[in-house]
Amino acid sequence: MSDPSDLDDPFATERDDNTDDMFGGSVPAPVKKDAAYTVLARKYRPRTFEDLIGQEAMVRTLSNAFATGRIAHAFMLTGVRGVGKTTTARLLARALNYESETPNSSEKKGGPSVDLKTFGAHCQAIIEGRHIDVLELDAASRTGVDAMRELLESVRYAPVEARYKVYVIDEVHMLSTGAFNALLKTLEEPPPHAKFIFATTEIRKVPVTILSRCQRFDLRRVEPETLTPHLEKICRLEGARIEPDAIALIARAAEGSVRDSLSLLDQALVQSEEGQSVSAEVVRDMLGLADRSATLGLFENIISGQISEALLAFRTLYGFGADPSQIMGDLLEYCHATSVAKVLGAEATRLPKEPAGRVAALGAQLSAGTLSRLWTLMLKAFEEIRRAPDPAAATEMALVRFCYASDLPGPEALLKRLQNGEDLLGGGPPGGGMGGGGSAGGGGVSAQGVMMRPQALAQEPQIQLNTFDDVLALISDKRDIGLRVDVERYVKLISFRQGAITFEPAPHAPIDLVRKLSSRLKEWTGQRWLIATEGGGGAETIRERDERERREALQKLQGDPFISGLMKAFPGTEILSYRAKPKPVVATVPDAPAPENLDEISDKDDD
Questions:
Q1: Spatial CB neighbours of 603, under 8 Å, sequence gap ≥ 6
Q2: Which of 210, 538, 539, 607 is the most exposed, having the fewest neighbouring CB atoms within 10 Å of its CB?
């Protein structure tokens, strides 16, 4: 049998080396012409079951079925576009009719097998779609009952060359009701030499009477973690140079479709000159995507209620060509990722490490109710943007609405105030607003309510920050989540006094951290703050301190006799989480001496 690689070239020809030309010399080998370009999606179509990526469960089931001889007579392959339904159908047709062939003999041997690494007697003809016993049909062009009856008439005849007659029907959901009914009896009692393989993207449109007669396989979307190495391997085989971040963008934009990812990769490889590497910025422009880090910063501005920063961030993204609907879609994704990180942790978000850490920090600061309300607002805004005559203007109005709503307390907070007899017009939620986003709108306060409080606002005392913990508390009260995360991760405090902070920046600290911290403190306290950085202080960040204290508390807990005895009694027991005992709260009267025995007061309070 000829080399399969030669059959891929339609211009390959055979020649007799003993043939001479008219002048007595040997005839030179014909020069191969440049064949038409084959797109990557066709060039790298899987040739074996091992080449299928992301479908390990299906491959394992089929391998066991073929090994034990429990092979079904009908298969139903379903899944989204580009996950390998048609490819799997062809591989199944090859596996069912696989017959190995010895090199120097016409003797054929072997039975149905999923081991297709070595080409069999019928493999090449099946791949090229010219095998007489393997019929590949498109249900979209043969939807009627007459076409189905004509097809079923040939089922009763035995195969000509292969072991089975295999009928591959793509997009089977497009068959008419009459065609499905005509197919029922044959699927119920098929002849032993006939096999059916169906593929569809709309499994719900296939009658249950058909599904119950087939062995169903749901081909999964290929996750970006699996798709990225596959694309990198193809780039190496093609000798193409492309940045890892660009490949990650393509894998994410493919939405689980291998064919879509290869088509996008084909398009990306021609975006730069030959020999030059394709950058992530070029791929981002090609896909019309916004900068992911900038979009996450926009989401943090919304959470903090910073209207001006949010509008400027959106206009910057829009100026770079990002689509407003795409930006809102990314914001929805980050809202969902924040909710998932709050419940399941940063690893469950399927985001890169740095964005996953940022959304996890956001989730730790926000309640589930707040995230749910934000999701509802964004989802409504997404539909408004798609219908608006000016999507950019609609997006800006939506951002104003998000930031304004960030200062408003939730229904549960209002109900609690109402039960406590508090003034519902008294501003934002307890503990401060989210950056003052709703201050411009008045938060729903009537004119009479505003006129009743001007003197109280004028006499409001200036905020005093006596310790660095007071600074952290103020940042939390203002709900500036991004600044809080940066301070906890990158600030190693050296000295602190009112109006001045000196710290050692941790590695990878944002370059604008000093400016941002200084401007925020000046805005909140009304006085100028001097922020200085020094090196070699040997201090630790807030996050490092919290981790150290957590480890020390855990070690102390493990050293407790009761806990250690419990862990010995139950081998394999682990301490997954623990909660520190709250400190007793002592109510003191002004100008009264502090109590001497705190335990007695705590016991009385408990009584």
A1: none
A2: 607
- Decide: 356 and 293 in contact? Cβ < 8 Å: no
The DSSP annotation for 14-71 comes to ---TT-B-TTSSBPPPPPPPPPPPPPHHHHT--SSGGG--S-HHHHHHHHHHHHHT--
* Residue whose pair of structure tokens reads 């105030």 in the numeric block: 417
Rounded average pLDDT over 536-563: 78
Cα dist. 329→159, 382, 541 in Å? 53, 7, 35
CA distance 41 to 39: 6
User: CB of 165 within 8 A of CB of 192?
Assistant: no
Largest separation between any pair of C-alpha atoms in the chain: 124
Mean pLDDT of 412-438: 54
Judge: domain 224-276, CATH 1.10.510.10. no
Can you name the CATH fold of 292-458? Answer: Zinc Finger, Delta Prime; domain 3 (1.20.272)
End-to-end Cα distance, the chain: 93
Return the bridge partners of 77, or none.
Answer: 199, 217
Select the highest-mean-pLDDT range: 178-187, 281-290, 444-453, 532-541: 178-187
For residue 550, the Cα-to-chain-centroid distance in whole angstroms is: 31
- CB distance 254 to 236 below 8 Å: no
Residues in the chain: 607
Residue spans of the domains in the chain: they are 40-218, 224-276, 292-458, 468-543
Predicted confidence (pLDDT) per residue in 16-55, tens digit: 444 334 333 444 444 344 557 888 988 888 888 888 888 8
Q: Count CB atoms within 10 A of the CB of residue 275.
A: 7
Structure tokens at 394: 């609609």
Distances (CA, A) of 383 to 315, 377, 392: 20, 10, 13
Taking the complete model, does pTM exceed 0.70, yes or no?
no
Minimal CA–CA distance to 166: which of 187, 197, 139? 197
- For domain 468-543, the question of CATH label 3.30.300 is answered with yes
- Name the DSSP class of 172: G
**Separation between Cα atoms, residue 413 and residue 425, nearest integer Å:** 12
Contact 266, 93 (CB under 8 A): no
